[in-house]
Amino acid sequence: MQAVMTAIKRKRDLDSVPFRQDPLVDPAKLARFVSSQRGAQFLPDGTLKFQARGMGARELLEQLQNLLENLFEHRISPSVV
């Protein structure tokens, strides 16, 4: 599996997750996540910002793992005959 995000940045309760330029995520699922989280944004530079109030590092990493599992789009590469 390729890396989808390049870092996790945290400033107080605001977390930023910059994605690679060509992440293999489902854009519709990403849009649903952003619209379901108050204050969440997906910026034109490919950065997902959201609030994680009251979360410790372990909880944040678990939430990010769940988020990425939900966003990951399995692409089937064409078979070579």
Account of the protein in words:
The protein has a 4-stranded antiparallel β-sheet, with helices on one face. The chain is globular, with a radius of gyration of 14 Å. It starts with 8 loop residues before the first strand and ends in a 10-residue tail after the last helix. It has helices spanning 27-36, 57-71, and strands at residues 9-11, 14-18, 41-42, 47-51. The protein is of the alpha+beta class and 81 residues long. The protein has one domain (9-71). Strand 1 and strand 2 form a beta hairpin. The longest helix is centred in the C-terminal third of the chain and has 15 residues, at 57-71. 31% of the residues lie in helices and 19% in strands.
> What share of residues are in beta strands?
15-25%
Overall geometric form? globular
Q: Overall pLDDT, averaged?
A: 79
Unreliable stretches (pLDDT < 50, length at least 5) are 75-81
Q: How many helical elements?
A: 2
> How far apart, in Å, are the first and last alpha carbons?
24 Å
Number of strands: 4
Structural class by sheet pairing and helices: alpha+beta
Share of helical residues? 25-40%
Q: Provide the number of structural domains.
A: 1
Order the strands across the largest sheet as they lie in space: 1-2-4-3
Q: What kind of sheet is the major sheet?
A: 4 strands, antiparallel
Write the SSE topology.
Layout: E1 9-11, E2 14-18, H1 27-36, E3 41-42, E4 47-51, H2 57-71
Antiparallel strand pairs: 1-2, 2-4, 3-4
